[in-house]
Amino acid sequence: MSRPVPLWALGLTLALGALVLLGFGFVLLAPRRHGALGELAVQVASIPDTVGRAAGALLPYHPTIGQPYEPLPGGLWRRPGFVDPGYILLTVFDTARRRWVVQLLRLRDGQVVRTYAPDIAAILAHSTFRSALIDLARDKTNQRFMAMHPMLMPDGGLIVHDTSPLVRIDACGRPEWMIDGIFHHSLERAPDGTLWASYRLPRTTRPGLGPQFADEGLMHLTAAGKVLGRTAVIDLLDANNMGQLWRGRPYSDDPIHLNDIQPVPGDGPYWRSGDLLISLRNLSLLLLYRPSTGKVVWSRGLPWRFQHDVSVLDDHRISVFDNHWRFAWDQPEQAEPDGTNRMLVYDFATDQVSEPLARAFRDLNIHTRAQGRATPLPGGDTMVEETELGRVVRLAADGTVRWNFISADADRNRFELRWTRYIDPVADKIGIQAAENARCE
């Protein structure tokens, strides 16, 4: 090992190494053009990420929040004199089970009337896709699966996902159906009872895009798990002369980031029954899309920045949970809210944007970096979820806190939430009763 090496040999080795490195980089610029060599180059380049994720999976699992927060008691706090007749469906970390579960919580007394803890690993074992984006066996174990935006069904069961296949379970956690693929963020019900889900192809087939490219889409399906249609966001943008919004930027594996599909409640002066409001985070863009014609009938980017969750308030106004990022679209892991998050209201009739809960957001210091929800409730109230900080609050129109829920253990260690859903006691009466009355072995 200590034998002298001729200078010319060292120089030749360095020169050949530089040529190999340049060639490797050239192949990675467009791996699909180079066939098997391109595939090999991508696999080699992915080794550090693969090793890092595998090592992370072997480390002890610590689901508590790693950023600063005020240590507060966990559970539900209710303002004296206010009674909320509804329920919330939320994902929490069960310290006794050492895993994430979904709870149906009754707001009038804070009682959990149903806890869902399915053997999700066994269900997902039937998945057949392989992807550089996710490894289900490694990342979606029973302990690590965090059901996102769970939906209560009339039989008391749920539809769940977590950057994973879409799964329907009954009230006892038994699987009823599964749609394979990568589903993420919102799951919403249209007025006709059909569902709209955000999904991502396990691997894009488009030329010039890498194996980790997020090829996003809208899926229309029935509650029985029958797929009615799929629409790729890229195709939607290209067909409406908006392709430059994602094609004209430096390459990114996540240029779009679909995070919400909100069906409108019916015909109105600015939309028609069947239209969809769509939120594209990494474009800071909202769309009003008409699936019946394939047309974008309205769009607006800004003043919201990297927003989540668009909702319909009435026949001419929508609300937007605005994460209010400082601009850092190419380095989202380094972005932070500019002060606090915002709930913005856009009025189609006046083309004006207002911020009715600005003071409440500042007083409560609502500042989740990513995720976040602002759900309109009856009577003009709003349910706001500060996802990464594990807090959900009900605010009156004047900003008064009606109740709040903190996801924390007995030692006040805080846990994230995953898009809490408000369950209406009238509209969801059948599902609530089925969940409460279910008897499981």
Quick take:
The protein is built from 9 helices and 24 strands. By secondary structure, it is α+β, with helices and mostly antiparallel strands.
Q: Would you spell out the secondary-structure blueprint of this structure?
A:
Blueprint: H1 7-29, H2 35-45, H3 47-58, E1 75-78, E2 87-94, E3 99-106, E4 111-116, H4 120-124, H5 136-139, E5 151-152, E6 158-160, E7 164-169, E8 175-189, E9 195-200, E10 216-221, E11 227-232, H6 233-239, H7 244-247, E12 258-263, E13 276-280, E14 285-290, E15 295-301, E16 308-312, E17 317-322, E18 342-347, E19 352-354, H8 358-364, E20 373-376, E21 382-386, E22 391-395, E23 401-406, E24 421-423, H9 429-437
Antiparallel strand pairs: 1-23, 2-3, 2-24, 3-4, 5-6, 6-7, 7-8, 8-9, 9-10, 10-11, 12-13, 13-14, 14-15, 16-17, 17-18, 18-19, 20-21, 21-22, 22-23
Structure, described:
It is built from nine helices and 24 strands. 19% of the residues lie in helices and 31% in strands. The strands form five sheets. Strands 5-6-7-8-9-10-11 form a seven-stranded antiparallel β-sheet. A five-stranded antiparallel β-sheet has the order 1-23-22-21-20, with no helix packed on it. The mean pLDDT is 92.
